[in-house]
Amino acid sequence: MELNYRLVVLGELEASSFLQKHALPMYPLLPTMHGVTVPMLIEAIDELKKHYTGQKLSRRLLWFRTLLGRTKRLLPEDKRIVEKEINMFDELLDDDPYLKKRDERVATQAAVQALQKVTVNIVRRRFPSLVTLAEERVAHIGSPDVLEELVGMLSTAPDENTARFLLSPTAA
Question: CA 64, CA 41: separation in Å to the nearest integer?
Fold first, then answer.
């Protein structure tokens, strides 16, 4: 099998030609194209919402918004105008399963990082000689539930030996 790839520079493509042809699959890429204007982008968003619904629309708007945010072809004020049009679909974007999973992952990571800091701070205040051990141990714990349990046990540990045991890998 032979694949012949061709490099396409989006910035050299004329945005108006895709709108004239109603090339809907290319609309999310319009913000990166030559000659793009705010009215063109709003027209494209209107066409997308007429043609797609649900997850298909939310994905295209997500791509559109991402590329709009990265392009240097439009002034910040112009980007804000187009963003307002997209923001009307925030509820739709909030219901997208891909975005929900991503948001859950981000929330879990944030919770883990916060609980890791709390754990180390508790050890720093109660058992300063175990800070390095605590930092090493919590770096390997990726579950908020496990970290919450560890925080609870370390905050009530009666002595340093108990805390050391709680921070050992075999205690988890």
Answer: 9
